[in-house]
């Protein structure tokens, strides 16, 4: 079946199902959709943890899965595989985003980068200090890094929902701050949430990292070798005592970020191939019957792959998997907080809970605003065109949505203290809801005033 207006050919049932799949495809490619899905998974996890499904929910998370490779065996709970394994893919994409921003994004130019870097540092240091003031000693102090993080998916989703009420440059600034924030969180995990180091395993990590560097230097552009060596490094990292997800960031840093050919050469080659494609076209034959056109198509595909950097291809290809699979599964596995009404007042007033709420909501606001004001007033950097300090207040509040990375750090900080982990998760969800609501409302009102 052919659409004469668009020149498209459809399978016999394709148009029948098109009306169903088109809205699904639009939802998947809508940047705010991942935030909605993430919120839905948080609600579902809370419902399961506080209903008759609680035992079923807990049982799945504590089910052990074992992988045997010859004489090597790895056995962990489903919860552990999600947090240490599946989240490795999330950290890999984070690493790709960090590398891209440093090379060609908001962090490529020093004066341009100074503002988000300063904002991110202020937004990490002040929340950590506020938490530490309320929890200066004991096991509770281990959670000092929890309010340092910003959840990109939720924060960007809130900005997208505001539409033209906020300047487009605000999204770029928030993204840059969140990426520097992620880099800071990765460094904190590596330096402060590492158990006893096994030097033999760490030596293998270094060997695999060197192999990844060699793959980059000799021009290997296929993602398969990077995936294989990166997986081996992840296994070694898991045995070394350093958190295994850091292997994802290190692998991402080794992925090539350059094109194989110049843009002018690519354009000339594509023009030549398309001219050849038109020349050998036979109206009465389909593409399967035209060997010369098939050869041209292979040439076009090869040319696109040479022009597109592997980093760019992987980031685009994995973004949807992370946004619509990895993070929702992580939320399902970690947001299920069993709430007891009788102990809820005690939970809400505990220093760990209060420290996280104050850190994420007040600390982020104070830290980002002060740091950004300092670099602007000193002349080191300036606010992007169209952005005022009113916008910066709203951005600072939205940066207090710390869900994914905050819970991840909380799992590391309080892995042996279930009660503190419960307080931490309660504080994270409460603070994220409060920061998101305040930030959205502030920018909505500020946008109305400026319109």
Helix run count: 18
Shape: globular
Spatial order of the strands forming the largest sheet: 1-2
What's the number of domains? Answer: 2
Low-confidence spans: pLDDT under 50, at least 5 residues? none
Summarize model confidence as the mean pLDDT: 87
What percentage of residues falls in helices of 4 or more residues?
over 70%
Structural class: mainly alpha
Q: What's the name of the CATH homologous superfamily of the largest domain?
A: Na+/H+ antiporter like domain
CATH architecture of the largest domain: Up-down Bundle
Largest sheet: 2 strands, antiparallel
CATH topology of the largest domain: Na+/H+ antiporter like fold
The CATH top-level class label of the largest domain: Mainly Alpha
Separation, N- and C-terminal Cα atoms: 49 Å
Strand content: under 5%
Q: What is the succession of H and E elements?
A: EEHHHEEHHHHHHHHHHHHHHH
What is the alpha-carbon Rg in Å?
25 Å
Describe this entry's structure for a reader.
- With 451 residues, the chain is mainly alpha-helical.
- It folds into two domains: 33-194 and 243-258 and 309-450, Na+/H+ antiporter like domain (Na+/H+ antiporter like fold); 263-307, no CATH class.
- It is built from 18 helices and four strands.
- The protein has helices at 14-29, 33-49, 54-61, 78-104, 110-134, 152-162, 168-192, 199-217, 223-240, 246-254, 263-279, 291-307, 310-334, 344-349, 351-377, 389-398, 403-413, 418-450, and strands spanning 2-3, 8-9, 64-69, 72-77.
- The strands form two sheets. It has a two-stranded antiparallel sheet.
- The longest helix is centred in the last third of the chain and has 33 residues, at 418-450.
- The model has no long low-confidence stretch (mean pLDDT 87).
